[in-house]
Design goal:
Shape: globular
Helix content: 25-40%
Number of strands: 22
Structural class: alpha+beta
Radius of gyration: 21 Å
């Protein structure tokens, strides 16, 4: 098969790595890809949002299967563009990707179908939102309705901070059109767990659990980011919790989407909060998480192409999904100053140290090729640069291996958190 992946970050590199291993993959393309993906795929310089150009390229190359990975193109209907041309595609249509693209939609869906989540109210008027805040107790959770690169959630400890947050989202438009509406949610406490699920619109198969670290600084301090590291599995996601979520969250959500005429095919990302009253949904995403994919995919036993095609064909009930009995930890190497401002274009040294290492992976998030002193080199090209992943027999071993591996790579202004997986010690 000729396969094309739409995307160019760490999530897409992890997917490309797994797809390239499949005996079903004869040729792999990535649009636009990155310097790491280029090791396993032919990268083509087409924007993830340019649906006409993507479809034209797929036709020209007689692509058999397309994987649309990031949130923005899914929300914009890029999967629809391929499907409408009869090209088999993994990823939900626009009318299903709305479960991520609109937090107001997903909250209304959960209320209507009794899917456990936090109490909330939605506002499209800043004055009404500010008035509502006066009636609530701190802390306050503010969510920009639309897509905001994982950064559109503000947790405010005081009323003044919350009022500033409303101004930031709805008036100053920090997150652009994503802030036309705001969801004000009940603050929940507990352990956060992410569970990604394959779905063909009828059957849903949960993957192994993971936990992300969103804040930029050690001790969960600083601004929200796209994710500074992950570990899998979560020791807090017990069999009891899994059973509850399978009955009350995963299948119920897929059935709800079908009932609404929004058949969901692809990956449903369920962000969960394990509260004293039981698991509650924090958010839904319509694709693999980043960097959750980087720790979940390396533990997958199945041929990922088989699973994705089953999602597209509606035959997921024929798949026996299985994961290795091990653990994985990912530490993101970022550009110092991320997520606010940072410099890029620095040469990355040490990538060759991973060439012969089993159970160690470097997934590129923000890299590109550039001319350095007359030679083609890999340089930094984003806030999050590399995801360094290591496997181990258990989480403690995987974490040690991952942090040891971060020392093998260097670039100017390299930054990382030093406490990824610290919660493992508290289990």
């Amino acid at each position: 098969m000729k396969i094309m992946i739409v995307g160019g970050g760490g999530r897409e590199h992890a997917i490309a790595w797994a797809v390239a291993k499949s005996p079903k993959c004869d040729k792999l393309y990535a649009a636009p890809g990155n310097a790491g993906i280029a090791e396993v795929a032919e990268c083509v310089d087409i924007s993830v949002m340019d649906a006409p150009a993507l479809v034209s390229f797929a036709k020209e190359k007689a692509i058999d299967f397309v994987i649309v990975a990031p949130d923005d193109p899914l929300a914009a209907g890029v999967a629809d563009a391929f499907l409408d041309e009869g090209i088999k595609t993994f990823g939900p249509r626009k009318n299903a990707a709305i479960i991520e693209a609109s937090k107001a939609f997903s909250k209304d869906l959960m209320k209507k179908y009794n899917i456990p989540s936090a109490a909330y109210e939605t506002f499209d008027n800043a004055e009404a939102a500010l008035a509502y805040l006066e009636t609530q107790e701190p802390p306050y959770v503010l969510k920009a309705d639309g897509l905001a690169l994982g950064k559109g959630v503000l947790i405010c400890q005081t009323l003044e901070e919350a009022k500033d947050g409303i101004k930031e989202i709805m008036i100053d438009k920090k997150f652009g059109d994503a802030g036309d509406k705001v969801v004000i949610e009940e603050f929940m406490t507990g352990r956060e767990v992410s569970v990604l699920c394959f779905s063909d619109g009828k059957t849903i198969l949960p993957m192994t659990s993971a936990q992300d670290h969103k804040r930029a600084g050690d001790g969960d301090t600083g601004l929200n980011t796209g994710g500074m590291g992950t570990f899998s599995p979560s020791p807090f996601y017990t069999d009891e919790v899994a059973k509850f979520c399978e009955e009350n969250v995963y299948q119920r959500t897929i059935d709800a989407m079908a009932a609404e005429g929004r058949e969901f095919k692809g990956v449903l990302f369920c962000g969960l909060m394990l509260t004293e009253k039981g698991p509650r949904v924090l958010e839904f995403n319509a694709r693999f998480g980043d960097p959750e994919a980087q720790v979940v995919i390396p533990r997958l036993k199945n041929d990922i192409v088989d699973v994705m095609i089953a999602c597209a064909d509606g035959t997921l009930d024929q798949i026996d999904l299985a994961f290795e009995d091990n653990a994985a930890v990912c530490v993101m190497l970022a550009s110092d100053g991320y997520p606010v401002s940072y410099k890029k274009g620095y040469e990355i040294k040490g990538l060759e140290n991973f060439a012969d290492k089993e159970d160690y992976f470097v997934f590129h998030s923000g890299t590109k090729f550039a001319d350095v002193d007359g030679e083609k080199k890999v340089v930094t090209n984003g806030g999050r640069v590399l995801g360094v992943v290591a496997l181990g027999n258990d989480l403690l071993e995987a974490r040690k291996n991952a942090y040891d591996a971060t020392e093998l790579i260097d670039f100017e202004n390299k930054y990382m958190r030093h406490d990824i997986g610290k919660a493992i010690d508290e289990q």
